[in-house]
Design a protein that fits this description.
Elements lengths: L34 H14 L3 H11 L3 H27 L1
Keywords: Ribonucleoprotein, Ribosomal protein
GO molecular function: structural constituent of ribosome
Function: Component of the large ribosomal subunit. The ribosome is a large ribonucleoprotein complex responsible for the synthesis of proteins in the cell.
Amino acid sequence: MALCYPMAMGLNKGHKVMENVSKPRHSHRHGHLTKHTKFMRDIIREVCGFALYERQAMELLKVSKDKRALKFIKKWELSNVLAAMRKAAAKKD
C-alpha cells in the first residue's frame, strides 16, 4: 500500500490511514512440523529403523554419490507410483 500524504493532488493523494492487520489464517500453517509430530516420527524411526532403499541411499551419500542417490530415490518412488497405476488399470479392465 502506498504511503499517503495529506495533500489533495499528486500520485499519493489522500489522507493517512492505518493498514489493516489481519490475523494469520489457520490454513497457512499447513505443512509446518509441530513438536508432537516431530517427536512421534522420531520415536517411530528409532523403533522401526530405515527401509532398505533408505539405507542404500544413505550408503551412496556416505561415499559422496549425491546425484546417484537422488536418481536411486526417484527411481524407487516412481516405480511404486507406476506399479499402482498399472494395478488400477488392470482392475479397471
